[in-house]
Design a protein that fits this description.
6-stranded antiparallel beta sheet
Length: 162
């Protein structure tokens, strides 16, 4: 791979993560403040439970607004962290679990060329404006997870919701 292609790839990742940083404070506060009935409440009422969406800011066209998706291949988890090439093992009413290539501002430049392997768990479904979204994530790296000191790797964190 030539230096120009690597530079473009780094610039694209940096631009995407920068856009997410600009939305980070707003999105995190929105996720923390989101209220509404959970999918469990819908089940108790006898209504069919649709699998939740995740609000995804991946891609230039969604960097400012996000886009509701199910089982996305690439997912912006926070203003600092992205998971790509996701293979979803589970996408259910209460949680979704997938494995993929993790990168973030905290591991650049090394993880851009050689992404880290990790497992993401999306959880805590909340209904916002009539649509259910996962509102939290947990990320665990494979291999040597203690190598990186990043808040996104420590426990559960809020995901953006509309």
């Amino acid at each position: 791979m030539n230096d120009t292609r690597i530079s473009r790839k780094k610039a694209t990742l940096a631009a995407g993560l920068t856009a997410a940083v600009l939305l980070g404070a707003f999105a995190t506060s929105q996720a923390a403040d989101a209220t509404g009935a959970s999918s469990d409440d819908a089940g108790k009422a006898g209504r069919a439970i649709a699998a939740p969406h995740v609000l995804n800011f991946y891609g230039e066209e969604y960097a400012d607004t996000g886009h509701p998706e199910r089982r996305p291949t690439n997912l912006v988890l926070s203003e600092f962290t992205h998971i790509g090439n996701v293979k979803w093992k589970q996408w259910g009413a209460k949680e979704a679990v997938g494995t993929g290539d993790v990168s973030g501002m905290w591991c650049l430049p090394g993880c851009l060329d050689k992404p880290l392997k990790g497992t993401v768990t999306l959880s805590d479904p909340k209904t916002v404006n009539g649509k259910t979204y996962y509102s939290a994530f947990t990320l665990k790296l494979s291999g040597k997870p203690g190598t990186y000191d990043s808040e996104d790797l420590q426990g559960k964190h809020a995901l953006a919701t509309p």
